[in-house]
Q: What sequence folds into this?
């Protein structure tokens, strides 16, 4: 079976006495959207720059699509697309002229360029902007153009560093639709972002804090790990209170009664839990039911807090 398309082991980067990335292990399977999250200065951008060969690691190994990045950085570049925090479009050139410039860097022949750009232009809705200069385009259109150029050569891996920074909510939503379209076509996407709620668009999520990985799992796995998970609030009918409390407690929910309301918490909400809630909190028992999912901001705060507590406890490994 093929292994991970991105595989980093013991990845570290030191700048003098400062360790920006500390022994990070990353494995990403083909076709996955992998979110690499953390606060500003946590090591996200340093990690992504090592992965694509722009920075040499102080220690550790990196394989991209089976190629050793530290030994053969040029060989991986034809397989990857990259979009940084600032879109690399040249002012003074039209978007179309930028496309032709990048096509030359990618080694695309004229016929191949026309075929690729025609497809990308339509998908990213860039035809109206083709003859405009980047400095005259709205931020959301510039971001779409940057993503389009990073996929022009049909890379197997796409690295996006803070791709939705500085754009409005509607443009961010459209941007993530385009990312998911790329993943559906088999492209592996490695994305960093400081919008933690964007983790829910992804298949796999890793959090980095002070250069160390504090989590690497699915969004659901993160919520289950932090034990905050889901909050269920129900307004109960008068004679159902004791029965509902007893049934949910037996099922493993953390339950608290607040007058005629009940608050229950659970780390995960899979099919079995949903079926139980549907049965126990039906119309004969509850006048209203509200289910809230923990935000990724809450999850990250808990992960960082728990990591700090573990690191400061005697005899506990960080």
A:
């Amino acid at each position: 079976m093929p292994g991970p398309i991105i595989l980093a082991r013991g990845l570290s980067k030191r700048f003098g006495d400062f360790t920006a990335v500390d022994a990070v292990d990353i494995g990403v399977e083909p076709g996955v959207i992998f979110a690499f999250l953390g606060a500003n200065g946590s090591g996200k951008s340093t990690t992504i720059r090592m992965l694509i060969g722009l920075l040499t690691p102080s220690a550790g190994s990196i394989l991209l699509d089976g190629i050793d990045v530290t030994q053969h950085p040029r060989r991986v570049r034809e397989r990857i697309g990259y979009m940084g925090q600032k879109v690399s479009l040249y002012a003074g050139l039209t978007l179309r002229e930028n496309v032709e410039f990048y096509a030359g860097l990618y080694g695309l022949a004229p016929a191949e360029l026309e075929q690729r750009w025609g497809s990308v232009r339509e998908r990213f809705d860039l035809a109206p902007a083709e003859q405009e200069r980047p400095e005259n385009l709205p931020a959301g259109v510039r971001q779409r153009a940057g993503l389009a150029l990073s996929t022009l050569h049909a890379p197997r891996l796409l690295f996006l560093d803070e791709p939705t920074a500085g754009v409005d909510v509607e443009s961010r939503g459209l941007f993530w639709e385009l990312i998911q379209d790329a993943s559906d076509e088999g492209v592996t996407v490695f994305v960093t972002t400081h919008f933690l709620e964007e983790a829910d668009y992804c298949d796999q999520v890793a959090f980095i804090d002070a250069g160390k990985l504090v989590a690497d799992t699915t969004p659901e796995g993160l919520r289950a790990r932090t034990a905050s998970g889901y909050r269920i609030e129900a307004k109960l009918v008068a004679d159902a209170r004791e029965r509902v409390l007893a049934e949910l407690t037996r099922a493993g929910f953390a339950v608290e009664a607040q007058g005629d309301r009940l608050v229950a918490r659970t780390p995960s909400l899979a099919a079995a839990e949903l079926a139980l809630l549907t049965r126990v909190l039906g119309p004969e028992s509850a006048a209203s039911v509200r289910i809230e999912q923990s935000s990724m901001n809450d999850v990250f705060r808990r992960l960082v807090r728990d990591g700090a507590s573990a690191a400061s406890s005697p005899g506990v490994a960080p």
